[in-house]
TrEMBL record:
It comes from the Bacteria. Pfam families: YesK. This is Preprotein translocase subunit SecD. Keywords: Membrane, Transmembrane, Transmembrane helix. InterPro entries: YesK-like. The chain crosses the membrane at residues 6-24, 36-56, 62-82.
């Protein structure tokens, strides 16, 4: 039960990040623009982990750390999606 809350909380921003990355890839933006959602997600995960570890502590802080972990997983998937180039068939 401890893992399901942070996992479900990370699904909404994670899916949004993946959809934005996919849309940026389809629009053939530069690599930096395609990687921006993943970078912002990693920054948010670091901030969440810091707040959970330093300010909140305890079991509630651990939930923030688990949430940050799942957000980093979505960011890694976003980076992998951003690196792939789109092959257009003409």
């Amino acid at each position: 039960m401890m893992l399901t809350g942070p996992l479900l909380m990370s699904l909404i921003p994670g899916i949004v990040v993946l959809l934005v990355t996919w849309w940026f890839r389809r629009m053939n933006f530069s690599l930096f623009v395609r990687m921006t959602p993943g970078m912002l997600t990693v920054i948010a995960a670091i901030i969440l982990f810091y707040v959970g570890y330093v300010n909140i502590r305890g079991f509630e802080g651990a939930a923030y750390g688990i949430l940050a972990f799942f957000l980093v997983i979505f960011a890694v998937i976003s980076f992998i999606m951003a690196k792939k180039s789109v092959k257009h068939s003409t």
